[in-house]
Amino acid sequence: MQPAQLDLARYTVRLASQTDFAGWRDAARRLTLNEVRPEDISWGVGSDANDPRDALPAVPEGAQLTVPREFIAHAETAFCHSDPGRFAFLYWMLCRLRTEPKLLAIASDPDTRRLEAMEKAVRRDSHKMHAFVRFRKIGYGEDEHYVAWFEPEHFIVERNADFFVRRFTGMRWTVLTPYASADWNGERLAIGPGAAKGDAPDQDDTEALWLTYFQNIFNPARLKVKAMQKEMPKKYWRNLPEASLIPDLIAGADEAARDMIARLPTMPAPHHAKLQAKHWPKREPAEAPDDDANTISELREAAKGCRRCPLWRDATQTVFGEGPDDAKVVFVGEQPGDQEDLAGKPFVGPAGKVFDAILDDAGVDRQKVYVTNAVKHFKFEPRGKRRIHSKPNAGEVQACRWWIGRELELIKPDLAVALGATAALSLLGKAIAVTKMRGQVIEREDGLRVFITIHPSFILRIHEPADKEAERERFLSDMREVKRLIGS
Ligand code: URA
Fold it and tell me: Measured between alpha carbons, how far is residue 374 from residues 187, 200, 342, 379 in Å?
């Protein structure tokens, strides 16, 4: 067990901040290589004009610190724990590991257990932060900015900021917490000082929409009060607008469960509604938009108002094809996914990343090809806050074939590539067995050659690494064949 820290420490280490892991690492390395005992060090946080680390002993010449590599990863996570004794504890662990390199594998050791518990608490807090940060809008138009107040238990802002950058890349936002803030201006992430709850707005005009949304997604038939409170502990409720609804929703759950059977699907989340409003045309377009488009950009414009099937209602926007309008090859996917729906561009999500990487390996330049989808609106099932992809049916594919037909008429490619069964159905007008026909070229009545292959998301769904790699290789050789067929 770690000894109690003595007041009369020989060395004082002042870290630059609660999350200054680099500073701790540097000090710990110097101290342990000089065989300084844990009880001879006092650890703290706070800047000082004279960096006391200068007063720490230098690393003795030729001395090398060897500790199991995984310790650094464990220590970096545990370092975010709010326990003020963590700096000393991690140093104590470091010293033990120098003589007991297998220590981390001894699950019964109290120090190993403490390290694991600290990491678990940090990970759990991070998970809660991902789930319970609620942005409120301030400003309009150019000044639009989203601000959230969150009270983490641990020092986790820095390690989670990238998550919010990825999730809300297109927004300008700030997350305020008592010890630090993260600010994204659309291009750059800045970590700043902490704030007070009063610095964040406590309401905005999207709040009513969010509350309605929450009421709609609340599934009374699946209500398990204990499980819910474990997932959403009460301490987070004070900063969650929807928490005020929970007692009533629980009380009315039985009745609501009966009603729910007849209820319509949920509304899209508030940020979808906002994006949707931005993309909805000023006037209601006719069922079939005027067909006077002479260029791909005119056609794209017309497609914004497409009402050929009901999918436009819940989708954020039409996701039209992208690429040069004289491309030699047109790749056709199934339908936009969640990320494509928000970005308004095809193949920018996980399947798009796989697709891009393999095209690149095959020497096909994505900038020179045209990429589109059989169905131009995202079809999904709302599940909680997530929107789960739902396969378009034959009627929806048929309704959208009109757009593909016009895209092909205007681009006049040498080859179309059907990525999966839905694309093949759209391009050929009949269902085919993709696994049987893969790698083959089918010539349509109008002379267009259609190359058949799988959808790249198929590779994403394979878990077994060897099978995944084999499938990737097959798709890569399909893409090389496409390159050969277009003579590039
Ligand atoms: N899957 C598709 O078929 N198309 C996209 O745009 C994204 C994922």
Answer: 33, 44, 18, 12
pLDDT in tens, 57-110: 999 999 999 999 899 999 999 999 999 999 999 999 999 999 999 999 999 999
Q: What's the 461 CA to ligand 1 centre distance in angstroms?
A: 14
Is residue 150 within 8 A of residue 174, CB to CB? The reply is no
347 lines ligand 1 (CB under 6 A): yes
Ligand 1 atom closest to Cα of 374? Answer: 3
Q: Considering the chain, what percentage of its residues have pLDDT values greater than 70?
A: 78
Q: Where are the domains of the chain?
A: 11-125, 134-199, 215-262, 271-486
How many helical (H) and strand (E) elements, i.e. helices and strands, does the chain have? 18, 14
Distance CA 267, CA 209 (A): 9
- 31 — phi, psi (to 5°)? -70, -45
Cβ–ligand 1 contact at 333 (below 6 Å)? yes
Which atom of ligand 1 lies closest to the CA of 420? 3
Closest CA to 301 of 320, 286, 316: 320
Closest CA to 182 of 170, 197, 192, 171: 192
Which pairs from 296-304 meet CB under 8 Å and 24+ separation?
Answer: 296/321, 296/325, 296/407, 296/410, 296/411, 297/325, 299/403, 299/406, 299/407, 299/410, 303/376, 303/403, 304/279
436: exposed, middle or buried (Cβ count in 10 Å: 0-12, 13-18, 19+): exposed
Length of the chain: 488
Q: Does domain 271-486 have CATH number 3.40.470.10?
A: yes
SS3 of 371-420: the string is EEECCCCCCEEEECCEEEECCCCHHHHHHHHHHHHHHHHHHCCCEEEEEC
C-beta 321 within 6 A of ligand 1: no
* Residue given tokens 């083959």 in the structure block: 440
60-69, 187-196, 223-232, 352-361: range with lowest mean pLDDT: 223-232
Least confident of 233-237, 300-304, 370-374, 437-441: 233-237
Measure 13 CA to ligand 1 centroid, in angstroms. 53
Q: How far apart are CA 255 and CA 167, in angstroms?
A: 36
* Interval between CA 128 and ligand 1 midpoint (Å): 30
